[in-house]
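Propose amino acids for all 355 sites.
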């Protein structure tokens, strides 16, 4: 149920204490509403604020400023409140679009991100590219089409924040036995590595013996399911990853001292990359809101950085996509928006997901 700003503090306090998973929606200005939330009370925040000078949102608000400098300043003020209400273990995910002015791409996403890190002590942990795959219509004939937006993952401190990487790993392929030999999911059997070790002219006899013994142990871990896959880097056979300098690379030092090292793949699969191919949801059964903020955009952030008993916040919730995903993932959530019609749509969407 939407509430006006004067009732926010009491309603939020009650909501935090109860076990209700249905979202709490707040009607009001995001900056003013956030001021009513207690310090260190929110576990996770994800939002997609209105673009600057691109759309006229219901009830005005942020995005209609005369200059992008004022727009950025207003956003930064809101995110200072987000910093205050977020727990030390919390995460803040920001999806923000860019804008052209007089044929110049302004660079709004990074202008905002750098202000947050330089002026508010946020730590930027990831910069994600959201590839919209199809993008929108583009009739310009003097530049490329724009089909991506930025997503930034911020935390209040560089270590100790909540992060569950296993919740978002992809399911790994399994090892198998071929002709009596253990073969990894990507076809690594150890035969090629053994031959490279045995024929090496740069490894000593002692190094060859240790290399073969270590390879056998790695293949045993594959068979036991302790790792999903591996790569073996052997001196004189494969190039060192990242750098050959021992002063910058521990792997280069290990290669010099032992003659080999392993790259091991996690048994639970790989983590998502920082490029997400997600189609915009142009309508999502909505008729009065145009922001293509898809449900899939919220799933990885919530699963990875919001604990199961945590509280999700979206200070520009619009028609409630963040809240809907939070509810479906069994998290409590608080959504704020200045437009009553958007919140009515958001409430309806979240209620319908129960039916």
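Proposal:
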């Amino acid at each position: 149920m939407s509430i006006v700003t004067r009732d926010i503090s009491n309603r939020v306090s009650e909501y935090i204490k109860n076990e209700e998973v249905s979202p709490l929606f707040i009607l009001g200005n995001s900056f003013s509403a956030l001021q009513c939330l207690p310090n260190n009370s929110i576990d996770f925040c994800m939002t997609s604020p209105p673009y600057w000078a691109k759309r006229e949102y219901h009830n005005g608000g942020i995005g209609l400023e005369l200059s992008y400098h004022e727009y950025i300043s207003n956003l930064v003020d809101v995110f200072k409140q987000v910093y205050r209400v977020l727990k030390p273990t919390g995460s803040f995910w920001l999806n923000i679009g860019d804008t052209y002015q007089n044929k110049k791409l302004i660079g709004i996403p990074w202008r905002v991100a750098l202000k947050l890190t330089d002026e508010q002590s946020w730590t930027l942990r990831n910069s994600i590219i959201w590839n919209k795959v199809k993008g929108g219509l583009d009739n310009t004939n003097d530049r490329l089409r724009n089909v991506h937006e930025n997503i930034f993952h911020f935390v209040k401190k560089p270590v100790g924040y909540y992060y569950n990487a296993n919740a978002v790993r992809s399911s790994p392929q399994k090892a198998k036995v071929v002709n009596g030999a253990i073969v990894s999911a990507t076809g690594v059997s150890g035969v090629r590595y053994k031959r490279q070790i045995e024929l090496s002219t740069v490894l000593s006899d002692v190094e060859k013996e240790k290399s073969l013994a270590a390879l056998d142990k790695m293949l045993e871990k594959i068979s036991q399911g302790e790792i999903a896959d591996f790569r073996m880097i052997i001196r004189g056979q494969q190039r060192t990853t990242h750098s050959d300098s021992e002063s910058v690379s521990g792997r280069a030092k290990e290669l010099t001292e032992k003659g080999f090292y392993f790259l091991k793949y996690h048994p639970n699969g790989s983590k998502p990359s920082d490029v997400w191919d997600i189609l915009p949801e142009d309508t999502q059964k909505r008729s009065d809101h145009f922001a293509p903020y898809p449900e899939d955009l919220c799933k990885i952030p919530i699963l990875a950085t919001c604990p199961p008993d945590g509280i999700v916040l979206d200070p520009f919730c619009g028609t409630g996509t963040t809240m809907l995903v939070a509810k479906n993932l069994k998290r409590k959530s608080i959504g704020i928006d200045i437009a009553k019609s958007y919140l009515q749509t958001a409430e309806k969407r979240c209620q319908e997901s129960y039916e």
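Residues 205-224 form the longest helix (20 residues). The radius of gyration is 25 Å.
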